[in-house]
Amino acid sequence: MSGSSRIQHPDFARKVVPAEEAAALVSPGDTLGMSGFTGAGHPKELPPALARRITQAHAAGQPFQVDVWTGASTAPELDGALAAAGGIGLRLPYQSDPVTREAINRGEVDYLDVHLSHVAQLAWEGFLGPLDVAVVEVSAITADGELVPSSSVGNNKTWLDLADRVVLEVNSWQPEALDGMHDVYYGTALPPHRRPVQLTHPSDRIGVPHLRVDPAKVVAVVETHAPDRNTPFSPPDDTARAIAGHLIEYLEHQVSRGRLPVDLLPLQSGVGNVANAVLSGLQESRFENLTAYTEVVQDGMLDLLRSGTLTFASATAFSLSPTAIAEFTDHVAEFRDRIVLRPQEISNHPELVRRLGVIAMNGMIEADVYGNVNSTHLMGSRMQNGIGGSGDFARNAFLSAFVSPSTAKGGAISAIVPMVSHVDHTEHDVAVIVTEQGLADLRGLSPRKRARQVIDRCAHPDYRAALTDYTERALHGAHGRHTPHLLDEALSWHSRFLRTGSMRPA
């Protein structure tokens, strides 16, 4: 189907303009709410056109920056293009673009690292200020003027509701069969008017299949035919397979002890190669009739759906490699009734995560011996990507696991340290830590007992003796013995790395 035939409403068809003309409707200082979640469903044409306009303004000595809100990370033609042009003043709530990351860490871009479930609420409460323009990709516009979402939902409902002006990108690359795969909930409200969200199973539908927008706010429609920008996953290596093996063995043990049902509980998995390895491991396990209540459907989850191991997946976006996108498009009819995409304020809703009893599996940068986890900052101050939705799930999950290789940089960095250099998930929200070395179940353990588990089961052998030495000396020299720390040494491993290029003791 051509792009024009995707726009069935005559009023919207009359507003079709080139991307450059739509970009001219954005003014310096505007706040833009853009679609996009992990490289899926982001606008493809307006951001590069806006970046070119910003570059021209800067060449003429004119200031031009915009603030950018999204669902989560996007793609080079959005984050990368605008950051390279020096056009972003503030970014939220999550990013993974290398150009944007460098600008944030140079202090050139203000960055608000926000729990993904909180973004819509903050916007509605007015704490983030007014939203000038929504730029939202859709896959079609119906004859009734409703918007068929594309490969992500994210915060699109909120942006369309709150923005003063709306630019729509209608992307004919997105499969037409996406229509009906979404469940957009319009029942959220601010206190004291909130009501229970009536969802008790990942497959429940509680909303409508399309987004709504006031036609009077739509100032431009741009037609596109461009792919999403998700990167390929690397095949699982020995480390990733070992991490997956430890976690799956643990889940089997929990089932045998009667702590989990035989079909587990709804799964949530962060994005990445290790997460994909865990999903691949589930494919080869004895588990069946699984469900997922998560943020993204990625390659491993698609494989589980096709095999029947996973019966249903609820998410807010796809995060598929190019190969998996082709597979999804070729077999979309198989997935239509087994996948639903929701707004992220529902996919990450803390009360729903708690009610469903989700098993959460997320990556980390480092954990300390007492179970605190850093998932955002390198060496305490350098932002990597952001907390994303891991906090929404970790605090509320029935079981919260954090996974990582035990070392990085060829062994120069230990993922298990005396004290994390930044805390995103406190020891109170972390149930399980897994590396290729082993798995530590921290539930029901006091801090000193947690330390022993983490060191013995998760730390790399090259660092185990030094961690043991630190905790033993802290036990006798700390100001208190409940969570013993030597404050002069607690972050010395990070300082040593910054000085010498390695955390290893001299």
Describe this structure in words.
Helix 4 packs parallel to helix 5 (98-105), helix 8 crosses helix 9 (273-284) and helix 14 packs across helix 15. Strand 3 (88-92), helix 5 (98-105) and strand 4 form a beta-alpha-beta unit. This protein is of the alpha/beta class and 506 residues long. Helices cover 32% and strands 19% of the residues. The N and C termini lie far apart (65 Å). 52% of the residues are buried.
Number of helices: 18
Low-pLDDT residue spans: none
Category from helices, strands and their pairing: alpha/beta
N-to-C span? 65 Å
Over the alpha carbons, how many angstroms does the gyration radius reach?
23 Å
Helix content: 25-40%
Number of strands: 25
Mean of pLDDT: 95
Query: Any idea what the shape is?
Result: globular
Features:
globular; alpha/beta
Concise summary:
Helix content is about 30%, strand content about 20%. It is an alpha/beta fold.
Map the helices and strands:
Blueprint: H1 10-13, H2 19-23, E1 31-34, H3 46-59, E2 66-69, H4 76-84, E3 88-92, H5 98-105, E4 110-111, H6 119-125, E5 133-141, E6 147-149, H7 156-162, E7 165-171, E8 218-224, H8 238-256, E9 267-269, H9 273-284, E10 290-293, E11 296-298, H10 299-307, E12 310-315, E13 317-319, H11 322-330, H12 332-335, E14 339-341, H13 344-347, H14 350-356, E15 359-363, E16 366-368, E17 373-374, E18 377-378, E19 382-383, H15 390-396, E20 399-403, E21 407-408, E22 413-414, E23 416-417, E24 432-435, E25 438-441, H16 447-458, H17 461-477, H18 492-500
Parallel strand pairs: 1-2, 1-5, 2-3, 3-4, 5-7, 7-8, 9-15, 10-12, 11-13, 12-14, 15-20, 16-23, 20-24
Antiparallel strand pairs: 5-6, 16-17, 18-19, 21-22, 24-25
